[in-house]
Amino acid sequence: MKKLKRIIVGIDIFAKSNNVLKRALMLAKRNKAELFLVHAVETPWFSVPSYFGGKELTVNIKGITKKIEKKIKALNKDDKVPYSIVVREGDADDILQYESKLLKADMVVIGTNKKSKKKFLGTTAEKVANQSHVPILIVKNSVKGPYQNVVAPTDFQAQSKQSILFAKNIFSAVKINTVHTYEAFYAAGIYTADSYTLEGLDIQQYNKAAKISAQNDLKKFMKDLSIKKGKIIDGKLNSKEALLKYINKGSYDLVVIGSRGTSGFFKALLGSVAASILRETPTDVLIYVPVD
Q1: Beta-ladder partners of 8
Q2: Which one is predicted more confidently, 193 or 60?
Q3: 39-64 burial by CB neighbour count: b if 16+ within 10 A, else e?
Q4: Structure pTM?
């Protein structure tokens, strides 16, 4: 698996906390990577004409750079992680995407910029997640140390395996719990998990077999990836809600999601399980995108 060498960090100089910087520094130190701190300034869309006594609005790029420099020096005085600072005018999501391609980044780290306790994902973070061509770590919480308790929802497909291998590779001493949800048999939209039969099919027996099959698949999946903890969840009427409930009730500090790449991940799945995890869980989220 490709080593992590260049990490783009989305910086918000108005953020009260330094959680994104702290997490990025920890990640860079662990992987001996270089950080590129990127701050986007929205271009002023108007100015007051001089004949009214107004002055043209300008962006103080030097001042912003000095402010970021002050933050990173205070946090990086012991570790001496190499870094560069980039300040650009434009929309944050566009700038981050542009710089990640220009600098050939291996990963993007960004905060959420959430405006309420009920909203776990900001607009910029969601846009970047939608468009990213490299793995992206979305930091939602305070940094108390390395990630310790990680959950990885799985459908047993290749992208799920790759996401877990990636997480194990870039984080030290991480414990991963994988979880799979399955749904019992449905008929014409009616839950039929009792001892009904449908055209000669024993539904109860079918559901039992489905559960056993899922358990066997999980055991093989865990063995292949050397994972010690795993769980099968009966999704009942709603697999997405069952999974979200499981994640939110657990004491996890990171959720790992595997994507199919920019060709279809969010365009195909926006509003489904993956997007709901991003929006509706208070946990940090790592989205693994295969890098070309």
Answers
A1: 36, 108
A2: 60
A3: bbbeeeeeeeeeeeeeeeeeeeeeeb
A4: 0.84
